[in-house]
Q: What sequence folds into this?
């Protein structure tokens, strides 16, 4: 399939064209870049939801239940699930798809025409995503999915790249995951727009909810609402109260949703929170703000890539000679870098 | 970046034995492939749709139930129905397959059949040789 076939295929809703486009983008073929340029005008409509959290907390199960709920609402759902690749062999066992159980024989999500599921290896990239996850969500967006769910690598404490891709970030935890100091660390525990305490049937959920709420309370004015209660089973009521405040234009206060994902408990509340957050982003202009921030960074990174390529392919700048002078101690690395940039600008780059 | 070979390891039908499939998946992972494992009890439609959406190079179907002559052609039929191209996909069957049926499967378009006792290197070498041979138009592997 060539670029034209693929772009037309995506416009016509051909899943194989979409699948092949992802392959091209993922492998950084020149065709991938061409496809991305040609489909960009079709993007910007989907709600991109990121799901992150430590390994084993139930991210995939939560995703499969979310797909079900969104499908019941008639939304088309694209899913990108990222799993780690081996740092030694580059191989990967991508195991998220197998957790996507069919929920209804007639609407089995493996073959549901309104669902597209793609597994990605992180291919050695740190941060919880693969290098091209952002472009892949954009392809799904262009294809016409209403909701795109990105499931990160089972993340440690600093895999926070998801915020560069998602409109709404969900951090999934489970009971008894640590003490208050864990909750107050930076990194994954400060990026959530929504927090989920899954596997609540294991017991100890109340304590985790309490800790999460104390973290959220620290810098929110919702103290008086949130401090009223610490019982997990009352959180749902609180979420409702919080939404009322949202509607009045207050800041977003990340709700803590309690779930037992494999039994489907709490998933309805989670979907309400997700939809509430998207409404909030749109109504307050924060969606635009977030996208400006993300695209600024993306374009900046692309500029740096271009410069890197120009430098690598520019035979008028004798890079080797510059470095040799640094090695001999004739000049320092900072001054050399400045000289090279000046030379590059003077030469007009290409 | 080098293109990674993507392999779907699938269990189809009522067969509940996946120790072999999991071991093969693990070894393929260690050989540097990206392996997508489907889990047990998939229907032919599910496996075919996964193969198309994941854009894999190899579909490996593991069967111990004796239903290979029924289920494997169904998977292949659905792959084509969902827009996949069997000319560029390598289809492998593994598991308990009587000698007489190996030729029948190959006549149906299966590229290779690996029975229990096959050294894992043989499967890895086969995939590494066969994928570029069936490579997609205009692609470098």
A:
């Amino acid at each position: 399939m060539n670029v034209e076939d693929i772009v037309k295929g995506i416009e016509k809703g051909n899943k194989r064209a979409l699948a092949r486009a992802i392959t091209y983008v993922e492998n950084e073929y020149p065709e991938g870049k061409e496809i991305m340029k040609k489909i960009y005008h079709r993007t910007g409509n989907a709600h991109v939801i990121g799901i992150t959290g430590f390994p084993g907390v139930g991210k995939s199960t939560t995703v499969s239940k979310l797909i079900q709920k969104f499908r019941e609402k008639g939304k088309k759902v694209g899913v990108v699930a990222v799993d780690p690749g081996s740092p030694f062999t580059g191989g990967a066992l991508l195991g998220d798809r197998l957790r996507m159980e069919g929920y209804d024989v007639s609407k089995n999500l493996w073959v549901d025409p309104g669902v597209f599921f793609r597994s990605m290896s992180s291919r050695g990239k740190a941060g919880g995503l693969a290098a091209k996850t952002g472009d892949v969500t954009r392809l799904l967006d262009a294809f016409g999915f209403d909701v795109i769910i990105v499931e990160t690598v089972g993340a440690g404490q600093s895999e926070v790249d998801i915020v560069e891709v998602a409109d709404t970030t969900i951090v999934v935890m489970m009971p008894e995951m640590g003490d208050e100091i864990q909750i107050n660390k930076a990194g994954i525990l400060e990026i959530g727009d929504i927090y989920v305490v899954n596997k609540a049937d294991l017991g100890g959920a109340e304590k985790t909810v309490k800790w999460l709420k104390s973290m959220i309370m620290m810098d929110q004015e919702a103290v008086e609402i949130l401090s009223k209660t610490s019982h997990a089973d009352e959180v749902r009521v609180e979420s409702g109260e919080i939404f009322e405040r949202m509607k009045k234009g207050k800041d977003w206060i990340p709700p803590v949703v309690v779930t037992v994902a494999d039994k489907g408990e709490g998933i309805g509340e989670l979907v309400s929170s997700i939809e509430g957050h998207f409404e909030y982003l749109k109504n307050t202009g924060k969606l635009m703000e977030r996208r400006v921030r993300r695209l600024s960074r993306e374009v900046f990174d692309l500029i740096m890539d271009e410069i890197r390529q120009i430098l690598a392919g520019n035979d008028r700048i004798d890079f080797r000679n510059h470095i040799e002078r640094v090695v001999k101690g004739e000049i320092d690395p900072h001054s050399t870098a400045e000289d090279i940039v000046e030379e590059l600008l003077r030469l007009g780059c290409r | 970046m080098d293109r990674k070979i993507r392999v779907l390891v699938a269990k189809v039908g009522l067969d509940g034995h996946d120790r072999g499939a999991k071991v093969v998946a693990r070894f393929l992972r260690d050989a540097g492939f990206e392996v997508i494992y489907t889990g047990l009890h998939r229907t032919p439609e599910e496996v075919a749709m996964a193969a198309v959406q994941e854009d894999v190079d190899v579909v490996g179907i593991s069967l111990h139930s004796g239903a290979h002559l029924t289920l494997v052609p169904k998977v292949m039929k659905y792959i084509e129905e969902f827009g996949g191209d069997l000319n560029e996909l390598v289809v492998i069957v593994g598991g308990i397959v009587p000698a007489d049926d190996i030729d029948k499967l190959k006549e149906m378009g299966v590229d290779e059949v690996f029975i229990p006792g096959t050294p894992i290197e043989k499967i890895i070498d086969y995939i590494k040789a066969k994928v570029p041979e069936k490579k997609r138009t205009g692609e470098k592997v």
Summary: The beta strands of chain B are 6-11, 34-37, 58-63, 90-95, 112-114.
